[in-house]
């Protein structure tokens, strides 16, 4: 019987202890797995979300986030200038405002309003039903939440009162036709969004907002790639700030997202320490219960390495079993935690805090393997330095 | 029973090769002036002092004496579990004090069997698996060790109990399994520390008979015991006091 078989039989001999160890490691491993998913999840998710819009560059007036800084002046002309660059496939100017849709609920439905001016036919949303807006018509697309709450369908006509500045406004309501129902990538689960052409947004804003945008989103040519496009746009419009998706993600990582990584690192260290202590205690108690047997085996000629290997394999089996269980447990826990965290206001529906990536699994396995080794160190020391004769004497006297 | 004082010499002695190929006499153990001193906080304690002893292949030796006189320590030294702190201990011509821990383990595995007062069978293994374990450690091929285990179970009269775990066996049966386990790798020397200490008189008698048979079949036997009846079954009886061999008597 080799060391693995021997360790297995030792565990089966004390099923309660083995179950305690395996379940303990499974619980700790699940937390560890989740911390690893959390450490990069938001970054990966945000990267995916940015890429899913089909635009990989963002041009703003300053390095402030879109919607939080000054507007890009002369946005429509600049959008067309950018779109003419060889490294650029298309560009779209985007202006953010708010609007009250006077339909459905008694006081209407408050929505986020987007105005777009595109160099081509593509817009940063996906049409679900109906058709896209025509730039020169008083048409809007709305998301599902808006359509439901304002009871709108493609072809509906609705009055919309825009709110284009931070200060108090009393703009008159303007009639619009609903051309389609669309999905917006940055929508929150309960968010209500309306989009129209930049020209129509200027009209809804009382004619005060013509040709200004919060951001110009740019899609680079596949042959050129985003870095070439960033350089071209920066050369063309040196007074503006250009950022690729990768740079935006890096900025998120250096900013608010870093808290998640720090939290995950601290919790990972805590959970690993707990796992080490748990297994060390279980193994040490188990070994102390059978010191006589171990001493007898040594007297019968079992080498020091063999009894050490038995203990080590026991640790590996406990951690291995718990580690395997920790994956589905961690997955389920991640789903539940993700659902809770996504209730934070303003989080886009498509953003996830816990995202699986193969490297997380690799790190998980490595950390658990390290745990098995570290947890076995003390019990191994006890077994390796066990005085055979003295232990046999003590066992008889005891 | 007649006893006579004698020197601690073996009854037989032929020349054989040791592990290094050197020709040695047929003695299994040659202990010359061996001592074992334990360092203690209150000062060193001498457990065994200046013992000279030889064990030959057919010896049947009993070591007796009051508690704490050094019987078990001497047994452990003879079994190469712990080396003497002074003196020379040769096992089949090899100086035990110069062997590494690994080599001493190998020597015990292949040439020495141990029987303990408390059996120390592994409770998660069956009787057969307990007997097979040392053979497995000695890398005996599977078929061979299965056969050997079967023979040993038959030898100790426990064929029907092969698949029983220690918790399902009586004390006497456990000790018989322990004896079979000690014999698994065909050792030349079997050491037993109070082998009947945990057993009633009748069961102890059965174990004593089994040990006699082991010795009669060619395995040298050294038994540490408080039991005069068990000691008197031996051909040499060593009496110990204060770590020294007080006297040796030959039993008929």
In terms of DSSP E residues, the strand content of chain A is 15-25%
> Shape of chain A, please?
elongated
Major sheet strand order of chain A: 3-4-9-6-8-7
- Into which percentage range does the β-strand content of chain B fall? 25-35%
Radius of gyration of chain A: 31 Å
Q: Give a count of the beta strands of chain B, DSSP E runs of length 2 or more.
A: 12
SS content category of chain A: alpha+beta
Q: What's the main sheet of chain B like?
A: 6 strands, mixed
CA radius of gyration of chain B: 18 Å
Main beta-sheet annotation of chain A? 6 strands, mixed, barrel
CATH superfamily of chain B: P-loop containing nucleotide triphosphate hydrolases
> Structurally, how many domains make up the residues of chain A?
2
Let me know the average pLDDT of chain A.
86
What is the helical fraction of chain A, as a range of percent?
40-55%
**Which spans of chain A have pLDDT < 50 for at least 5 consecutive residues?**
none
Count the beta strands of chain A.
12
CATH topology term of chain B:
Rossmann fold
SSE map:
The complex is a heterodimer of chains A (about 400) and B (about 250).
Chain A lengths: L2 H11 L1 H38 L4 E4 L11 E2 L1 H9 L4 E15 L6 E10 L7 E5 L8 E4 L1 H6 L7 E7 L10 E10 L9 E5 H7 L7 E2 L1 E6 L5 H11 L4 E4 H10 L2 H33 L1 H9 L4 H38 L16 H27 L3 H10 L1
Parallel strand pairs in A: 4-9, 6-8
Antiparallel strand pairs in A: 1-11, 1-12, 2-10, 3-4, 3-7, 3-11, 5-8, 6-9, 7-8
Helix pairs in contact in A: 1-10, 2-7, 2-8, 2-10, 2-11, 8-10, 8-11, 9-12, 10-11
Chain B lengths: L15 E2 L5 E2 L4 E10 L6 E11 L4 E5 L6 H8 L7 E6 L2 E2 L5 H11 E4 L11 H11 L4 H14 L15 H12 L6 E5 L7 H16 L3 E5 L3 H4 L4 E6 L2 E7 L2
Parallel strand pairs in B: 5-10, 5-11, 8-9, 9-10
Antiparallel strand pairs in B: 1-2, 3-4, 3-6, 6-7, 11-12
């Amino acid at each position: 019987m080799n060391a693995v078989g021997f360790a297995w039989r030792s565990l089966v001999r004390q099923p309660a202890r083995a179950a305690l160890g395996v379940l303990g490691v499974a619980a700790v491993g699940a937390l560890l797995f989740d911390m690893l998913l959390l450490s990069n999840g938001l970054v990966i998710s945000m990267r995916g979300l940015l890429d899913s819009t089909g635009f990989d560059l963002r041009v703003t007036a300053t390095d402030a986030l879109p919607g939080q800084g000054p507007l890009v002046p002369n946005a429509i002309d600049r959008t067309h200038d950018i779109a003419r660059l060889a490294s650029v496939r298309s560009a779209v100017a985007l202006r953010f405002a708010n609007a009250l849709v006077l339909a459905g609920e008694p006081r209407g439905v408050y929505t986020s309003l987007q105005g777009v001016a595109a160099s081509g036919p593509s817009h940063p949303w996906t049409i679900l039903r109906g058709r896209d807006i025509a730039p020169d018509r008083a048409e809007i697309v709305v998301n599902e939440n808006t359509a439901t709450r304002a009871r709108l369908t493609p072809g509906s006509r609705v009055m919309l009162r825009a709110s284009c500045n931070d200060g108090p406004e009393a703009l008159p309501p303007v009639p619009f036709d609903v051309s389609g129902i669309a999905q917006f990538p940055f929508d929150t689960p309960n968010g209500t969004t309306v989009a129209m052409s930049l020209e129509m947004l200027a009209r809804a804003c009382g004619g005060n907002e013509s040709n200004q945008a919060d951001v110009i989103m740019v899609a680079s040519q596949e042959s050129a790639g985003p870095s070439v496009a960033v350089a071209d746009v920066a050369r063309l419009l040196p007074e503006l700030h250009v950022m690729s998706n990768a740079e935006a993600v890096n900025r998120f990582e250096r900013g608010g997202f870093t808290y998640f990584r720090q939290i995950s690192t601290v919790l990972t260290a805590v959970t690993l320490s707990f796992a080490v202590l748990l297994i060390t205690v279980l193994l040490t108690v188990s070994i102390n219960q059978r010191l006589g047997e171990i001493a007898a085996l040594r007297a019968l000629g079992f080498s020091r390495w063999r009894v050490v290997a038995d203990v080590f394999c026991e640790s590996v089996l406990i951690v291995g079993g718990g580690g395997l269980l920790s994956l589905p447990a961690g997955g389920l826990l991640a789903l539940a935690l993700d659902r809770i965290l996504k209730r934070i206001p303003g989080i886009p529906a498509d953003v996830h805090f816990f995202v699986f990536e193969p490297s997380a699994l690799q790190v998980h396995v490595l950390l658990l393997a390290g745990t098995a080794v570290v947890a076995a160190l003390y019990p191994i020391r006890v077994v390796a330095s066990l005085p055979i004769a003295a232990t046999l004497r003590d066992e008889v006297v005891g | 029973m007649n006893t006579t004082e004698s020197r601690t010499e073996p009854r037989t002695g032929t020349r054989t090769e040791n592990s290094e190929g050197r020709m040695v006499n047929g003695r299994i153990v040659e202990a010359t002036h061996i001592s074992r001193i334990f360092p203690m906080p209150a000062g060193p304690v001498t457990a065994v002092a200046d013992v000279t002893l030889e064990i030959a292949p057919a010896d049947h030796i009993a070591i007796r004496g009051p508690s704490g006189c050094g019987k078990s320590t001497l047994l452990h030294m003879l079994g190469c579990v712990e080396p003497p702190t002074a003196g020379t201990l040769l096992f089949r011509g090899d100086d035990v004090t110069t062997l590494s821990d690994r080599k001493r383990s190998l020597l015990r595995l292949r040439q020495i069997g141990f029987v303990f007062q408390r059996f120390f069978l592994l409770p998660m293994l069956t009787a057969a698996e307990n007997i097979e374990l040392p053979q497995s450690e000695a890398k005996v091929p599977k078929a061979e060790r299965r056969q050997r285990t079967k023979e040993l179970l038959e030898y100790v009269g426990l064929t029907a109990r092969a698949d029983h775990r220690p918790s399902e066996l009586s004390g006497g049966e456990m000790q018989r399994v322990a004896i079979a386990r000690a014999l698994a790798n065909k050792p030349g020397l079997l050491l037993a520390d109070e082998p009947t200490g945990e057993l009633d008189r009748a069961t102890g008698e059965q174990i004593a008979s089994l040990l006699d048979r082991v010795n009669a079949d060619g395995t040298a036997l050294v038994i540490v015991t408080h039991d005069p009846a068990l000691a008197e079954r031996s051909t040499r009886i060593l009496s110990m006091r204060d770590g020294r061999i007080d006297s040796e008597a030959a039993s008929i």
